[in-house]
Amino acid sequence: MHKIISYKKQETPSIKDDVWQVMRFDKEHFSAVLPDGKLIVPFSMWLSEQENPQWNQRIKAGDIAVWFGVEDDVQLQAEVIQQSIGDWPLIAIDFPIYRDGRGFSTAAILRKRFTSDKEIRAIGDVLVDQLIQMARVGFDSFDLRADQSIEVGLAQFSIYHVSLQNDWRSARSQLKTVVS
Asked: What is the average pLDDT score of the chain?
């Protein structure tokens, strides 16, 4: 079974089995018929199919989650997100290439503006050396790129024992006092 790194707030990072399947569609091969199992569908597909009666039972069962791509503007779609966020058991953010940092902003906006406590997962071109920064802005699960070692990824979280900046998980652990 496929594995992910899970690092939920107030928990210790760990490797877990992944029960979710990421659905990737291009416009020419789009089908509203979904395969069985727990699915993470593109936000654009959610927009067009969320009222589809064939989806209703799957949505109510918590079997459909969404992923945001770099082309999805969460600020522009705020109303839809606010109305739908309760239906999503998981929110994923796609990194089409490791050097594209727009997903960091999307995660921070989802955590801060929508005060989302949902699991936010990094998918796509996710590298082990990005995990600490991703965890700081709001990601709490990570689906690493196939050539990345999940054990090395997990070890990233034990490298740093102090925090010099605040993040969504906690306040900084080290404060410097200046005496004049």
From this structure: 86
